[in-house]
Hints:
Elements: E1 7-11, H1 15-26, H2 30-48, H3 55-84, H4 87-90, E2 93-97, E3 101-106, E4 109-114, E5 120-124, E6 127-131, E7 137-141, H5 142-145, H6 149-159, E8 165-166
Parallel strand pairs: 5-8
Antiparallel strand pairs: 1-2, 2-3, 3-4, 5-6, 6-7
Helix pairs in contact: 1-3, 2-3
Amino acid sequence: MVQEQTFRFHIQMQAKDLWKFSMYHANKGYLLVFNVLFTLASLYLLVTKWGETGTAYRLLLLACVMMFTVWQPGLLFLKALKQAGNDRLKTAMDMAFDKKGFTVSQGEQSMEVAWDEVTKVVRIPGIYILYMSSIRAYLISDQVLGGEKEAFTGFLRDVLPKERLKRV
């Protein structure tokens, strides 16, 4: 008799995981292309026009260079710190995965999710994101997975169709 593969994880949400998730959403697709081009164009103008421009123009260009490289990541990190301090996220979650779906337990509450309710799973560096909808997702960090990361990746490939997996 073959034993069904199951995984159990105890997840304590960290600010760095929320920050990575926010950075992914703030810089994906055409947004990333725009952010990079805008930053490079601003940097190019700052360097090539430095001697020809006044202080106000230099400060404006410096602000443009820093917008997507310093300010946006910094503001998203502050937002992640605030979110991580939220009582709902302070309480650890337990997730149990099997071939039928997974169960999420937090405190006294528990919810079962079937695999057909998962719209997609995205792998970004350090985190798996399991989307139930465009506004509801679960984050599982590599730190939580520990030595089971490869086995969990293979498990996800087995239980979900390929079109719902992105970089997994």
